[in-house]
Amino acid sequence: MSQKISKEFGISVKKDENFSEWYSQIVEKAGLADYISAKGFIVLRPYGFAIWDLIRIYLDQKFKETGHLNGFLPCLIPESLLNKEEKHFKGFNPEVFWVTSSGDSLLNEKLALRPTSEALLYSIFPKWISSYRDLPLKMNFWNTALRAEIKSTKPFIRNSEFLWQEGHTAHADKKEAEVEVMTILYLYKHFIEKVLSIPTISGYKSNKEKFVGADYTTALEGMMPDGKALQLGTSHNLGLNFSQPFEIKFLNKNNNEDFVWQTSWGISWRLIGALIMVHGDDKGLILPPIVAPIQIIIIPIYKDVNEHLVKDHANRLRDSLVSLGYRVFVDERDEFTAGWKYNEWEMKGVPVRINIGQRDIESNNVEVVRRDNRQKSIVPMDNLSKEIEKIFQSLQSDLYCKAETFLKEKTKIITNFDDFKGILDGHSGFIVTGWCGNEDCEVRVKEDTGADIRVIPFDSKDLPTGPNTTNDVIRDCIYCRKKANKIVIFAKAY
């Protein structure tokens, strides 16, 4: 029976042979999410929600430490509000779901299901802001957004409704807004790299790819195992582009009226998709300890004669570890073999497994198994907490280093367009190259290859290819061959 169950619930394809199917199986079989009949919508199961909740708890604390307060916004936006910022609205119009009736009665005005909250929130800001004493106003929201993604959907990566976090701030001067943009971007970067163990490249979006209505957009891009880029977080400087149409003004210290300077920024449950893709293997998920709903799984190994004794010790061990702050679960189910349990918890990506049986109790040791490399070690009970902490730190670091090595391998400096197309026809990846700054060249590259400018790195030291990637190496635009005035990263993307 256990063999039949294992085949049914195990991953039936290899990650490097059928990446898309591998990903879909993990989402479903690890108990992260399930599907409904409406295309583009998923149900987040408790285990998947627990991962999102740990992401939320960590970031929420960081936002509060930097002076941001949480609020709540309705999900319906009157069309007239969207039309107040016409350029912004046009950018989202193809993706907007509309509510046009209430029961059998047509509404006097169409209501948009929130694709993003700028227009709705900024219509309220004039009520809250009148003086420099009201600034900075720094708000954050944990909510959902809806965008009509019905063609190429992928759970956590591209959905018609998704969980996300969006921050909105208003400032008395331009410089303060610029500082806010970078503060948040690097808060995201630290979280994604140090907590999720996913390396990123930071920089600006091109004008074509920036957030609609922003002066500029900063972003973090990650590389997925299939060679496609994934945008992991953005932070936008909105300048005066919303405060002017929405008349968000304040009296400054000289008693003169000014418009506020604004920012917005966000991440989404796309980070869960990135975790699956970057760290998962042919056995299932591999979760970094900080965002693992269960950090330690304890498997009691017993026969009928010693079942009570072994389970009792396993539960006492759990209580001891829980008292130290670990998230621990004991799998006491009798209907499954120990081997089946190993496979299930490997599928769910639990960082550490502890096996405990009669002989372990007698010797006062336990067997500890790492999820990432399946390394086993016999650890004295008296030293268990210290050993687990060392494993957690090593696992977190090793996951990052492995992903960083892959990112560097998949990043190439290319100066010839034929070579550029050849890479994108093959294994894809990040291409570091020159760009003249002309949007026409950017569009032509996209049309010819399917790749777009993912990010314009802040500095050469932000490049995986190292600080020697300068204009001494890259002199010309990859498309028109005119002098390059920017070093950029092209890639195909989700």
What can you see in these coordinates?
The protein has helices at 2-9, 19-29, 46-65, 79-84, 86-92, 118-122, 125-128, 174-195, 270-279, 307-323, 338-347, 358-363, 384-409, 417-425, 439-449, and strands at residues 33-35, 42-44, 69-70, 76-78, 97-102, 105-113, 137-146, 161-171, 201-204, 216-223, 229-239, 249-251, 257-259, 261-268, 296-301, 328-330, 352-357, 365-370, 376-380, 411-413, 430-435, 452-457, 486-491. 35% of the residues lie in helices and 27% in strands. The model is unreliable at 1-7 (pLDDT under 50). It is globular, with a radius of gyration of 25 Å. The protein has 15 helices and 23 strands. The chain has 3 domains: 15-279, BirA Bifunctional Protein, domain 2; 294-389, Rossmann fold; 411-491, Translation Initiation Factor IF3.
Question: How are the secondary structure elements laid out?
Answer:
Layout: H1 2-9, H2 19-29, E1 33-35, E2 42-44, H3 46-65, E3 69-70, E4 76-78, H4 79-84, H5 86-92, E5 97-102, E6 105-113, H6 118-122, H7 125-128, E7 137-146, E8 161-171, H8 174-195, E9 201-204, E10 216-223, E11 229-239, E12 249-251, E13 257-259, E14 261-268, H9 270-279, E15 296-301, H10 307-323, E16 328-330, H11 338-347, E17 352-357, H12 358-363, E18 365-370, E19 376-380, H13 384-409, E20 411-413, H14 417-425, E21 430-435, H15 439-449, E22 452-457, E23 486-491
Parallel strand pairs: 3-7, 15-16, 15-17, 20-21
Antiparallel strand pairs: 1-2, 4-6, 5-6, 7-8, 8-14, 9-10, 9-22, 10-11, 11-14, 12-13, 17-18, 18-19, 21-23, 22-23
